[in-house]
Amino acid sequence: MSTLTFPDSLPSPADDCEQLHKAFQGWGTNEGLIISVLAHRPAPHRREIRRAYAEIYGEDLLKSLDKELTRDFERAVLLWVMDAAERDAVLANEVVRKWSPGNRVLIEIAVARTAGELFAAKRAYQARFKRSLEEDVAAHTNGDFRKLLVPLVSSYHYEGSEVNTSLAKSEAKMLHEKIKGKDYSHEEVIRILTTRSKAQLLATFNDYKNQFGNPINKDLKSDPKNEFLSALRAIIRCITCPERYLEKVIRLAINKLGTDEGALTRVITTRAEVDMKQIKELYYKRNSVTLYHSVKKDTTGDYEDFLLALIGRDDA
Amino acid sequence: MSTLTFPDSLPSPADDCEQLHKAFQGWGTNEGLIISVLAHRPAPHRREIRRAYAEIYGEDLLKSLDKELTRDFERAVLLWVMDAAERDAVLANEVVRKWSPGNRVLIEIAVARTAGELFAAKRAYQARFKRSLEEDVAAHTNGDFRKLLVPLVSSYHYEGSEVNTSLAKSEAKMLHEKIKGKDYSHEEVIRILTTRSKAQLLATFNDYKNQFGNPINKDLKSDPKNEFLSALRAIIRCITCPERYLEKVIRLAINKLGTDEGALTRVITTRAEVDMKQIKELYYKRNSVTLYHSVKKDTTGDYEDFLLALIGRDDA
């Protein structure tokens, strides 16, 4: 569920554009006004604002914002003004160009989205970058990670609830054998994790636990320093409970010495209208402090105000 | 271009349904009437007929046809009545369940279609079979073929005309090195062939010829019995000139001892409204006999009449 708050009646897109234009005028920028408009409008309304702005002022709102704002606040506002698909495309492109084995953003975008959302992101990627996401991932990754990430971003997953229980049993066994033999990047492991539907994989993971005693992710923790194992666990967590996975991403971003603003901004802008309410609840349960409080403590200025506006009230 | 012929003014879908229903009545089926209706209606009109038929007679037209018709004629008519995406889904499912290294149908469907057509086929596949195409291909193939076919059916290719010439140069060099070293299933070869856009690949193949003297497909002919090499050549031919590739599929189907009706039906039903005119021209150039004449000679009865109706006049 969304954490966004709106005025009882939304101003027209043209009125909102006028406010934004006013915020850009004169000496200095009125960041507060920008936040009060953009952070309190749902996605379809923001899209209308962007369209109206281009029509009235002859410039993409993203460009005007880019000129006026700076640093973390700028990045957060720009991502927020984009459509969800465009935002994912931009985030994916950012990471693919400087990809490293420790980066989990492609997994987040490929797995913690619906098949339709991922497909929309891939279309947006092509429209913006004139290449396909899969071709860039294939060209910028290598070894076992390439074997894993290319099918992960390529597959168009079935999303029905049908489950084949005997298949779940046999594939759970297959996963267990390969994990036991430390053959983590075996092509059958990759095939199962990257092509099966989420419903089927949940059945497989449940069967794994029933047959072999441990949750599969526990068996994948044999070497905490192995980035490939960590990537497999991230995939499995994004399948079994994306909100819990994203809570951890936020927690690590906040607890990191110096705060990982990139991750914090990414998760908050991509999930505010999706499941931020659940993430906030999980955050409070796990950290005994509200996400609002943690963000307030770890960030400053307009960036702080903007993130707090997106995550809504100081509750769990 | 299409080879279909239509009456000057198309009857209403309801009138066509009445004719079809009449053809199913009484003793025996009036195959001629079925052909005269269905083989002379464009795809959107056939879709309307199918919708109207279900509404009027409470049964899917496919089911009624299935009861009335038999053998090659039945298969051809059923495929023809389906939407293009549904047809590709059914054809892909047929081959994936009994896949063998010599089968090229998945390549034909993955490469001789636009990215949008392949995506539509994948959606139709899920709707009909409650699984994804990529998961079935991954589960039913193995070894090098799996490494090749899974990304081939998974990728959503960029279709713009932008070409990166220095990339074409470096990837042509990479392909040449691997081919020279007989390392045909090297992951870089597969990456390039399965993820790059067609425009980019054409530039790469041209560069290959310029740099190294031979067309790439000539260098991939070192072992004519190697099915994997033959699959790579099929991919490259479907990229460079799908009509020429499909002409060859038809030629081999006709020249085969006993005729390969499966392949003949597949290519004619899938291409009649796409590029059958070009295929006919290429067929005549290559065989010095019209496709019409060859099909007439090699097939009989209603099946013959139906295919001839789809490929249009006896010209080149």
Describe this structure in words.
2 copies of one chain form a homodimer. Chain A is mainly alpha-helical. The first copy, chain A, folds into 4 domains: 13-69, Annexin V, domain 1, CATH 1.10.220.10; 85-154, Annexin (Annexin V, domain 1); 165-240, Annexin (Annexin V, domain 1, Orthogonal Bundle), CATH 1.10.220.10; 242-311, Annexin V, domain 1. Helices cover 71% and strands 0% of the residues of chain A. Chain A has 20 helices and no strands. The longest helix of chain A has 16 residues, at 165-180. The two termini of chain A are 13 Å apart.
What's the structural blueprint in terms of helices and strands?
The structure is a homodimer of 316-residue chains.
Chain A lengths: L12 H12 L6 H8 L4 H15 L3 H8 L2 H11 L2 H14 L7 H7 L3 H15 L3 H8 L2 H12 L10 H16 L6 H9 L2 H15 L3 H4 L7 H14 L1 H14 L5 H11 L4 H12 L3 H8 L2 H11 L5
Helix pairs in contact in A: 1-2, 1-3, 2-20, 4-5, 5-17, 5-20, 6-8, 6-9, 9-10, 10-12, 11-13, 15-16, 16-17, 16-18, 19-20
Number of strands of chain A: 0
Write the H/E string of chain A, N to C.
HHHHHHHHHHHHHHHHHHHH
The CATH homologous superfamily of the largest domain in chain A is termed Annexin
Largest interface: A-B, 28 and 29 residues
CATH architecture annotation name of the largest domain in chain A: Orthogonal Bundle
Mean of pLDDT of chain A: 96
Q: Globular, elongated, flat, extended or rod-shaped: what is the shape of chain A?
A: elongated
| Cα distance spanning the termini of chain A | 13 Å
Strand-pairing-aware structural class of chain A: mainly alpha
Radius of gyration based on Cα positions of chain A: 21 Å
Major pleated sheet of chain A: none
How many helices of chain A? The count is 20
Percent range of helical residues of chain A = over 70%
Assembly type of the chains comes to: homodimer
